[in-house]
Amino acid sequence: MSGYEVTSRNKVRRLEGRAHYDRETVHAVLDAALVCHVGIVREEGPLVVPTIFGRIDDTVYFHGSVASGNLRAMRAGTEVCVAATVVDGIVLARSLFNSSMNYQSVVAFGRSRQVSDPGEREAALKAISDHVLPGRWEDARRPDHTEDLQTAVVAVDIEQASAKVRDWGVGDEPEEDLELDVWAGVLPLRMVTGEPQPDPKLRPGIEVPGYVRDRE
Amino acid sequence: MSGYEVTSRNKVRRLEGRAHYDRETVHAVLDAALVCHVGIVREEGPLVVPTIFGRIDDTVYFHGSVASGNLRAMRAGTEVCVAATVVDGIVLARSLFNSSMNYQSVVAFGRSRQVSDPGEREAALKAISDHVLPGRWEDARRPDHTEDLQTAVVAVDIEQASAKVRDWGVGDEPEEDLELDVWAGVLPLRMVTGEPQPDPKLRPGIEVPGYVRDRE
After folding, report:
1. Nearest Cβ partner of B96 from A80, A81, A141?
2. Which positions ≥6 away from A149 have C-beta within 8 Å?
3. Chain B contacts of A68, Cβ < 8 Å?
4. Contact residues, chain A, for B91 at CB < 8 Å
5. Where are the alpha helices (DSSP H) in B14-144?
6. Could you give the ipTM of this predicted complex?
7. Half-sphere exposure (CA, 13 Å, Cβ side) for B5?
8. Cβ-count burial of B172 within 10 angstroms (0-12 exposed, 13-18 middle, 19+ buried)?
9. Contact of B155 with B112, CB cutoff 8 Å
């Protein structure tokens, strides 16, 4: 896979050592983030909306109610920025100035379009489901005709993107700071699952599925 | 504290039962989110940038390099949308259609302004530090004059905001779905800290501080 073209829109100008434009890295960060934040421009100014999403190749998919005003704007076709961020740790230098975060982030750009083709709609909904919880699509009841009519699916074909990754320890400290009596290092952060909480109406004898119990 | 005025910009139109406009809820969600996503409008279209932040009352603070192009636009004063999201779980209904997420999110709007007053700058930098890791501000070396000159601080005084919170189990399922042989319930998700990783250059005898070890 080739990299994304670097233009004025997606060029990382600050901390360029953290920048990546190859599709492998951009896709990996998108896949690692559970939710993304979608930016569009409305009459009053910028709007950022958190949402779950799915990815197939260079296309990001969203879904929601056909009654959603934000999705309506995206269905009509508009410039979109998709940001996905995974926080991996707090980097504690001896000075506040040199302290940082470890993270993986993607900022991607493209135009939105409504997805109407039944095949692409189904693939998109499966991609979203698989993104949140692999295995669920095969187990849960799929949308029926009435539910399908209530569901809007929107795609953003990524035209430009950049990833930023910081995954190392404390850096850039002046020599004299090393003499300070201040702890320095990395405090890792990660998302974990808790104990599955069964619905009170769960029928007896239905065990927690493996794909729920073992989700990382 | 009173609530935010509800206007066409911040009114939650979908799933209104999850909407909150009171300052307590909006502030609590902002405080619970480690990073936020900031949306601005550039010539080419929307841009969304992930960043750490701090909050004092109704003002959200960001900081970064004076060389940052994105911060430059915000320093000049522009319409900004700040979104902060905490994911609390995956809600697994028996159908994909009724499945959902548990989450807390805020979408806030305001104009950005450069922070130049030394007192407000210091309060802002402390708020950002306290937001990421309470206790660190008192322990680490604070910015010196040279570092201060390299640091831009931007404020967004929140004019409008809404919060959305979903924190319950499976709902809205049609009766017939309850008969399905599909597990239903909530898979909780939460962010946890790992074992602190000391900098290899750490001077001997400096223990992991309590505020690092005990951060939730």
Report:
1. A141
2. A66
3. 13-14
4. none
5. 23-32, 69-76, 118-132, 136-139
6. 0.96
7. 7
8. exposed
9. yes
Residue of B nearest to A208 (CA): B183
Answer whether B83 sits within 8 Å of A37, measured CB to CB: yes
* Both structure tokens of B108: 């806030």
Of A13, A50, A207, the CB nearest to B83: A50
Domain parsing of chain A, residue ranges: 16-171+195-213
Residue located via tokens 């979408």: B107
Cβ-Cβ contacts under 8 Å, B105 against chain A: 50
DSSP state at residue B18: G
- pLDDT tens string B58-113: 999 999 999 988 899 999 999 999 999 999 999 999 999 999 999 999 999 999 99
Give me the residue from B35, B39, B201 closest to A46, CB to CB: B39
Alpha-carbon separation of residue B127 from A153, B72, B92 (angstroms):
40, 21, 37
Was domain B16-172+182-213 assigned CATH 1.10.1160.10?
Answer: no
Q: With 80 as the cut, is the pLDDT of residue A1 above it?
A: no
Report pLDDT for A16.
78
User: A40, A96, A126: best mutation site toward chain B, by most B Cβ within 10 Å?
Assistant: A96
Question: Is residue B82 packed enough to be buried (19+ CB in 10 Å), middle (13-18) or exposed (0-12)?
Answer: buried
Residue A97's CB: how many other CB atoms inside 10 A? 22
| Dist. CA A197–CA A205, nearest whole Å | 15
Place of tokens 């309506």: A72
* Chain B residues in contact with A45 (beta carbon < 8 A): 41, 79-81, 109
Q: What's the CATH class of domain A16-171+195-213?
A: mainly beta
Q: Which of B83, B201, B207 sits opposite A178 (nearest CB)?
A: B201
Nearest to A27 by CA among A162, A216, A189, A168: A162
Which two three-digit tokens encode residue B35? 């990073």
Residue whose tokens read 């004063």: B77
Amino acid at A205: G
